[in-house]
Design goal:
Layout: H1 2-16, H2 20-32, H3 49-73, E1 133-134, E2 137-143, E3 151-160, E4 164-174, E5 180-186, E6 193-200, E7 203-210, E8 219-228, E9 240-247, E10 250-256, E11 258-259
Length: 262
């Protein structure tokens, strides 16, 4: 029995190397004191004091050895492993496509001036006399009362007692210096006529031609040409008008000059 205990003590001491000096001193003090007297039951004999001391030392060594073994064999606390954060994605800006240039409307070439065929009849002037009435037509020419030293308007009043299926009206303003077109108008619908203004034969010529399929109703109608001229009172002796029409009664033509503004 003592050999077995000694072997266990040696194995525990060799394995764990506890503080043997302190432990042995504590065992020796316990062994040196007076042994307590215990009553033992008959048939049982007390263990020798040395055996008791050995058992106590073995218990202490075994307890210390187990504690040291637990401490030695316990794995070191694992350090918290922090997973590396994933790299932030690199956002590459999408290149902005330049806006296409604004479309520019192509320049429109000016329409060529309308070429008006010459009248089959000579254009009358004030010196050539006049015919202010013919068939269903009646006419009168005058210079507008609101004309001034810089600007004038030539007016033609035309009356018809029958519907007209064709009509051409022409006003001629002699080029007396600085005569330039500034506009024209008529009391009949504008969409019913093709209008041209051009310089021809030393005069500014305004012409209205009734479109095919249109009709001029009976009544009084007016045509006017407006223009600038050289400063001063302008003489209208070289100006004139002419109107050619077709009605149910046949063709009719009137012409004449312009009376000065009253």
């Amino acid at each position: 029995m003592n050999e077995h205990i000694s072997r266990q003590l040696r194995e525990a001491a060799g394995a764990h190397q506890p503080d043997r000096a302190r432990m042995l001193a504590r065992v020796q003090r316990g062994a040196a004191g007076p042994a307590p007297r215990h009553r033992t039951r008959s048939g049982l004999r007390s263990w020798p004091r040395a055996a008791i001391a050995g058992l106590a030392a073995a218990g202490i060594l075994a307890t210390g050895g187990l504690a040291m073994a637990g401490i030695t064999q316990a794995p070191p606390p694992s350090e918290a492993t922090t997973a590396p954060a994933p790299p932030s994605p690199v956002v590459t800006p999408t290149p902005t496509r330049p806006a296409p240039p604004a479309a520019t409307a192509p320049a429109t070439a000016p329409a060529p001036a309308a070429v008006t065929p010459p009248s089959p009849h000579p254009t009358p002037s004030a010196s050539a006399g006049s015919r202010t009435q013919n068939g269903p037509l009646w006419s009168a020419g005058s210079i507008g009362s609101h004309s001034n030293a810089y600007w004038s308007e030539s007016d033609l009043v035309l009356r018809t007692s029958q519907p007209l299926t064709s009509l051409t009206v022409e006003l001629r303003v002699a080029q007396t210096g600085g005569v330039r077109d500034t506009g024209n108008w008529r009391t009949l619908p504008a969409d019913d006529f093709t209008v041209t203004v051009q310089e021809a034969g030393g005069a500014l010529v305004y012409r209205w031609v009734l479109k095919p399929g249109r009709t001029v109703p009976p009544g009084e109608h007016q045509f006017a040409g407006q223009y600038n001229h050289a400063t001063g009172v302008r003489a209208a002796t070289g100006d004139g008008y002419r109107a050619e029409a077709q009605s149910t009664g046949g063709p009719a033509t009137v012409w004449g000059g312009f009376t000065p503004a009253g």
